Automatic annotation (TrEMBL):
Any one GO BP annotation for this protein: metal ion transport
InterPro entries found in the cross-reference section: ATPase_P-typ_cyto_dom_N, ATPase_P-typ_P_site, ATPase_P-typ_TM_dom_sf, ATPase_P-typ_transduc_dom_A_sf, ATPase_P-type_domA, HAD-like_sf, HAD_sf, Heavy-metal-associated_CS
Keywords attached to this entry: ATP-binding, Cell membrane, Membrane, Metal-binding, Nucleotide-binding, Translocase, Transmembrane, Transmembrane helix
Family: Belongs to the cation transport ATPase (P-type) (TC 3.A.3) family. Type IB subfamily.
SUPFAM superfamilies registered for this protein in UniProt: Calcium ATPase, transduction domain A, Calcium ATPase, transmembrane domain M, HAD-like, HMA, heavy metal-associated domain, Metal cation-transporting ATPase, ATP-binding domain N
Designated name of the protein: Copper-translocating P-type ATPase
Manganese among keywords: no
Amino acid sequence: MQVTRDFSHYVRDAGEGVRHIDLAVEGVHCAGCMAKIERGLSAIPDVTLARVNLTDRRVALEWKAGTLDPGRFIDRLEELGYKAYPFETESAEVAEVAESRFLLRCLGVAAFATMNVMMLSIPVWSGNVSDMLPEQRDFFHWLSALIALPAAAYAGQPFFRSAWRALAAKTTNMDVPISIGVILALGMSVVETIHHAEHAYFDAAIMLLTFLLVGRFLDQNMRRRTRAVAGNLAALKAETAAKFIGPDEISQVPVAAINPGDIVLLRPGERCAVDGTVIEGRSEIDQSLITGETLYVTAEHGTPVYAGSMNISGTLRVRVSAASEATLLAEITRLLDNALAARSRYMRLADRASRLYAPVVHATALITILGWVIAGASWHDAIVTGVAVLIITCPCALGLAIPTVQTVASGAMFKAGVLLNAGDAIERRAEADHVIFDKTGTLTLPDLEVMNAADIPADIFELAGRLALSSHHPVAAAVALAAGAKSPIVGAVEEAGQGVRATVDGVELRLGRPSFCGAETLVGGATLDPEASIVAFSKGTAKFILSVRQGLRPDARAVIAALKMRDIGIEILSGDREPAVRAAAHALGIPEWRAGVTPADKIARIEELKQRGAKVLMVGDGMNDAPSLAAAHVSMSPISAAHLSRATADLVFLGRPLAPVVAAIDAARKALHLMRQNLWLAIGYNVLAVPVAISGVVTPLIAAAAMSGSSILVMLNSLRARSASREIV
């Protein structure tokens, strides 16, 4: 009977004739594994992307539509020595918890055995071994073997299994030299004990496993903490929503069955499953994990809400603008996945070094053994030295040097409101020494505000807001939102390009252009903000002027001051009118600015700065900013930016504040510093340790402690990247 596999449920359309699937892969522990998997899968014809996320052991695959069966990827991974299956968040979390518990059990067994074997070794160490009776010495050795052999067989499973899969696939990984070293040390110790030799190395083998398990457990838990951020986002996703299928009838349906334009009911205590706009009701919503706002936001008619937001008090009717994978939450999740899977220049360097290291380790150990035998040493002493070389030269520290910093830094930057969208964004961001800001939607908020609302009588402002509800113009929407209007005026008529008019109690109301409302004289006599759009309101003969504009981001002045303190050059390049750009630049204290510039002008300015040796960070949000974002040394966009700009930018920041711009620079500089430190630590360790081990003065026990200590030192140093977000925000 032929069994078929259907993975269509897990495959999604990535656009432009490309399909995407995520696979969970067991046994991925190091940079060498990542490189092997990516090379093996990329070799399949028509595969356009194969990227491993070491943080959650997931591989993202993309290929040309209609050319490949996803089952082929699972078969190829099996050939490479890895078991794979479609990635699902819940099953991945269950597997992760199970693996963590297994590692902890292995560590407990190894640590218990280490303590007991070391206690049995004390009598041998404390006296002259040659003076001990052979029966006494053999007794301690056999007792050590009785403890160490079963303990190593159980505790060494994470390494033995991984090494066996690699060898079965006719390749190597970092666990191969570890497994060979442990097995050689144990096997040689058994032989030595049988022949009544003075020394055995059960303590070295079991202590090596203990040190390695400590390092692997710490590494996994560090990744789990970072992955918890993604888990929190996944937990925000509601799987169903209450959809209106009639005027007063609702049905609980899957999110996949909801389309833009549908109306859903959002009750108190529920998480919103869609992006949309409130059309009825009033409540407070918590959208802190989506937009970065920590205070509850009042939700009423016209208020945008996002998937993942928590409704606190009232009941809301929401008109859907996006659902399922098109929501802002889904976009943030995809960007976070990119951040955790991003591959920096330093990581690629470490990958190549780790890939070459495994065969070099084996060759070095073999040459050491043969060299000592040729020099006249016994096979026993030569093998002991070879085992020490095999253990001490394992490239674990080098393999962890960059990925650990990348993982911790990505988590720290996310907490500061920044998501990576490019592999080498951290290095390039750290190098930035000149920032170019777009103005509209970047230095200013994307939402329009009525700046002089306090100057308008409350009853007049309420009428203007109600009349504004009948218009689709964004300026009218801002007036309606600011006035808190809930019900439109019946019979209102919108005149295209002019405004809205209606009659209430025999009095004509108008909202729109000053000429449409007969308020031209008020515009000429008023001192108005140069950035503002002017909208007039008339009630009979009473005329009023409303000033509507995008306000500066709340912390824009502080951010500009912080950039200046870091000796970073700043300028504004905007396509907006000169008075508006001048006012913003003056308010922020930015002396260099240009207004009315085209996308080509922005690129020309970036190239000019490049010629001077500047590393330009471009921060923009509009579709017309995409070319200059691509041309800059590194680029950044707010999450509210046009889709093309978000896709082009190297980093994306969340929320209304501009602080993530500074946060990203500080975090990137610290991460780059730690990456370089870790590389030098790993390289320096091997430069010092290998010659010492080859010289024969290092025992397997000391080699185990040195190798594990270097890995733990690298991981602890990487954790310093977490402090960056605390120092910035």
